[in-house]
Sequence to fold (154 residues):
Amino acid sequence: MHHRYIRFSDRHEDVNLDKLQELLKTSAFWAAERTVSGLAIAISNSKPVVTAWDSDRLIGHARATSDGIYRATIWDVVIDPEYRGVGLGKKLVKTVLDHPNIRNVERIYLMTTHQQKFYEQIGFEQNSSTTLVFFNKDTLNLKTTDLELQPIKI
Fold:
């Protein structure tokens, strides 16, 4: 990586879903199969969504969901492999943590398979008390397009 101007954005309209899908496909084994329509749903229900750009190349992404006061979860933290090791991942996560929707939240969660040490450097702690997962079998077999067609009842 040369010394370039890296731009961070927390604007939903700056998210390019095709570029995000490609970044996840090439840089995140856990998200390689995500669809553009599924990403659109995830992005629209997340705040903040933070992207990192080198000119018009998407090189980083992270998002969070929150109730704004008690709990939040950070999702989909990814940096292009060519840009790793220079502090961009840390800056990406800190940008999420500093966002007004997250900064005053009591507890912020994230899940990671192999990067525990990285997140501990930022201030996250191992937590053995939150280990339950519910797999919604009704949605596991649905296509993302099926989800878009179902009306939401409030």
About this structure: Residues 17-27 form the longest helix (11 residues). The CA atoms of residues 91 and 153 lie 38 Å apart. Strands lie at 6-9, 49-54, 57-66, 71-79, 107-110. DSSP finds six helices and five strands in the chain.
